[in-house]
What we know:
The chain has 208 residues and is an alpha+beta fold. Helix content is 18%, strand content 20%. It contains three helices and nine strands; from the N terminus they run αββαββββαβββ. The chain has helices at 4-14, 87-100, 158-169, and strands at 74-78, 83-86, 108-111, 117-121, 134-142, 147-152, 176-180, 186-187, 190-191. Strands 3-6-1-7 form a four-stranded antiparallel sheet, covered by helices on one side. A three-stranded antiparallel sheet has the order 2-5-4. Helix 2 runs antiparallel to helix 3 (158-169). The longest helix is centred in the middle third of the chain and has 14 residues, at 87-100. It is globular, with a radius of gyration of 25 Å. Mean pLDDT is 82; it is low at 1-22 and 25-31.
Amino acid sequence: MFSLPSARTLLAACRPSTWSSPLGPALSSPSLVFARGRHQLAPRSVKFLKRHKGVLPVPVGGSTKGTTLAFGDWGIRVKGNGMRITAKQLKSADDALKRKLKPIKGAKVYMRVFPDIPVCIKGNETRMGKGKGSFEFWATRVAPGRVIFELGGVPIREELAREALRLACDKLPTLMEFIDRKAPPRLGNLLITPEIPADTNPQLTVAP
């Protein structure tokens, strides 16, 4: 039989935790408080840990937001179909870029997307019902033409930027394309090029 001190220690280990969140009772539930590593891509807190699967965004309204560079001089964007990219894939691509650009002092890597969508999975050959599956990983949905990574901070040679971004593309599940500051915006599979006025080019001027 256990002695009195050891029995109390065992009982304290089996007793559920009574920790309460300083942000209020909404985050005191054990299902909403989860450990997040220091170098892990995950939101700090969410209101609901489980979410609907949702659909991939399709730019049917003509918006080209997020398809051109905003911070750096070189970047990659989605050229193929839209895809759901996981936090692990984004972290692997980010590590590959930083490893390649480590000798360049002042070089920065900009990640234009963030995995804030929880993905829940149920086991194979599971009967219907019994509620939604358990949380597995974080992911983000990207549309065709969405910029994923940018390189900047200091001037970087194009050859080095292409090699670094090629290594990052190998970690991502969809087809990417290399872009620079002069790249036109993309609407799905269509490049939006600026129209050239007929007056600027004499060959395009229509004779009366």
